[in-house]
Amino acid sequence: MSETNVIRRLEAAGLPPQLSRFGEWADRHFKWVLVAPAVLLILALSIYPLVYSLVVSFINFDFQVPGHAFVGFKNFERVIADPVARWSLVLTAFLSFSSVAIEFILGFAVAMTMMRSFPGRGLIMSILIVPLFISPVIVGQTFTLLLQRPFGPTNYVLSALLGNEVTISWLTESPYIYFSLILADVWQWTPFMFVILLAGLTAIPPNLYEAAELDGVGPWQVFWSITVPHLGPMILLAITFRLLDAIRLFDTIFIMTGGGPGTSTYTASYYLYTIGFTQFHLSQATAGSWLFLIFTALVVVFLVRRLLKAETN
Amino acid sequence: MNDREKRDFDAGLAEEVDAFLTGQPTRRSFITRFGQMVGMLPLSGALLSSVSTFALAQAELELADPSTPLGKAQALALEASTVGPKDGSAYRAVEAAKQFAGVNLNMTYEAGLQALDPRNFSGPMWQDMTGITSSVAELANPDMYSKAVAEHFAGSGAFDVLDISPAWTPSLADGGVIAPLDDYIAKYMNLADLEDYHPLYKALPTYKGKIWGFFDDGDMFALYYRKDIFEDPKMMEAYQAKFGKPLAVPTTWEDYAQTAQFITDQMAPEVYGAGHFRKAGSPGNHFDFMQQFRTNGGELFDENMQAGIAGPAGLKTLENMIAANTASIPGNNELDAVSLWAAFLTGKVAMIYSWPPTGRMTAGYSQTATAINFIPQSEVAGKIGYAVVPGNPEHATGFNKALAADSANPEAAYLFMQWITSPPVSLARVMLPYALRDPYRLSHFKSDLYAELWPDAKEYLVNLNNSANVGVLDLIMPGAQDYFLSLDRMATDVWAGADPQTALNTAAAEWNDTTDRLGVDSQKAFYEEFLKLPGSTADHTVEKLGMAVKLD
User: Fold this and answer.
1) Among candidates B243, B270, B269, which has minimal Cα distance to B257?
2) What predicted TM-score, i.e. pTM, was given to this entire model?
3) Phi, psi of B273 (to 5 degrees)
4) CB-CB: which of A64, A257, A279 is closest to B171?
5) Hey, what domains does chain B have and what are their CATH numbers?
6) Does the UniProt entry include the keyword Transmembrane helix (chain A) (predicted)?
7) Is the ipTM here above 0.95?
8) Residues of chain B with C-beta less than 8 angstroms from the C-beta of A66
9) Does the distance separating the beta carbons of A63 and B496 come in below 8 Å?
10) Which of B55, B383, B386, B546 would bridge with B463, disulfide CB 3.0–4.6 Å?
11) A77-312 domain in CATH 3.30.420.270?
């Protein structure tokens, strides 16, 4: 900007023009030069692999079967025909919706609590968000140590509290295994909901609450008529973000259950990992990834539309 | 230029200078900084390269106290490599390798303890003698296969020496990922050293008549039991009274479950009869099924390559395993190999079968190395007996050293492989307290130095040898990972309450699907090659073939 001014002033002063023809061309197209590195990086690191993965899903790319012959939709058929793949999709939906629902309720409750001022609030808030900074692998390992028999203390503590011997196999026995996975996820990600919703709550104009108080409106009506409507877009945003993250659930499964017993804790991500990196059927795993992407896209489109609609309203 | 124009011009320059001083980017400053960043790229590349080289390189040579058995073994390895005998494989390898001084060898190793040997001992020693440096790429076990294949596809020549599971040899050989060694062996090796392998292990790197590596890790399962419990007069008396026969180390799987249950009934919660690593994804399930299934007379495939695991032998195997689980420590089905070791070392379990490091850990020898201090100190040292697993123990994976076909320095890589697996050098390596490499050569089993490591070490070595005499091998053919994964899923499903026969049928269907995917005829040919190996079935062990090695 200031450089252009300098040139203009040089010209006005009768000094020879400073830009060559190339310089003028460069000046006109400078914006493209600026974005070119980013575009090239995206093409090289995202678009090319994406297109290549589409190619791989239609050929044989298996570390155990020589050659890369075109196989049409065979890789997709294998995934669709695989009962483990179908189950992993169901489990992914169940675990992600359950976890996010619980995280939302708890996060909302904590955020509402933290709206009030009380001694130690800052310290408690700091402690509450610590799980967000911990790697999911560490969270999985920690919960494994807590829950795993015979060394984990959970059954011991429960036995002491209940007065009876508790012998639950938290990591191998249904339905406790699902409870354990949800527990670990909720422990780590409730603070995310809390932080987002707290930000939303603080943005609601306080005069609305003051007016409601003057009008003698009860707390429940205030909650349903002021808090929830004003927080709506933020709630949808938090749930969208969290849900998109939750359906990729892998780390804690890998550490806590290894997908077992049997295939009962295979999520979609874990299924694709197993097919691709344990069994080395890369083209089948790629085809499965594309199918999973389509299912995910459906959820994303639905949520984003709701989000946009809420913001428009 | 009139005054006003001059004023405007000066103001413009000041604006430029102000923008610079306030840190506002101008096009010029952007171009300058962009140029600087581009200039930094080659610099950072060189920097990153040197950092990664440093990270991958081995440390200084770590030698034990020369007065200890390990120190003596290391001195002998050094002497054999530098002084002779001159016809020894170690000496020949070192002498021939000196022409390649300055070369760097990239080698894959399983991440963690396994990689400490080339980093701290064998890598630096080789470098000191030959001038050949080495870089260790630590990989998770499945990546040791996939990375090798991926780099071969890319033709990168990233690796020179590969640590591979023997089960991968046919795939990697047929895929051109690894190279045969026969010509190099003829040129450099003292062939007597090939005869020093236990017969079970000798044939493992052989495929289609060629040698595709050197065997380097005797991962034989063995039974480790508490002698003090089995020799306790009260226990012996109670067992005799209950079963009408003496309490003894079990030799059948039915006896094993019964004995474990008896000990649990008598001693729990202080001590439980047995423990197993049954967690999903830990390899204990498929290893255990494979060894018991074949002991029970099961055949993995029929003549049409249909899976044979769902028959009576499979059902009997699962029922035995369930009985053993019931008799075991609480949480048995959630244990992995390390937590099972922890349970045994702390005296909570009377019997386990596992890999050979179990013997070194229970004696407290492994824990002398700080690298392995995450394992509890042994509370059962001196109380452990060694026995052959009932029937036929599993050789649970092991490692071959293989030559990467794309290596830029194949001869130097081969010479390193010959040297590191030569009798004196490999002995020093299997004696490292932190190492997870286990004895596999006859000279290891007979080693007086190894026998001095702890009071019962000689019995330990004899038991490993005897186990290899009757041991059965992992399935060695393409698709092994798929077959094993199906067994693991099947077993953990059953532990969670699934009907054993239904689970067997599901696993058999998965096996057939895997066979179909890889090609029935091709898999049949691979399986027939596997069946030729000693240890492929319970009727085709080293002992049954009359090749058993007897030690005093």
Assistant:
1) B243
2) 0.85
3) -65, -40
4) A64
5) 69-219+397-470 (3.40.190.10), 222-395+476-531 (3.40.190.10)
6) yes
7) no
8) 174-175
9) no
10) B386
11) no
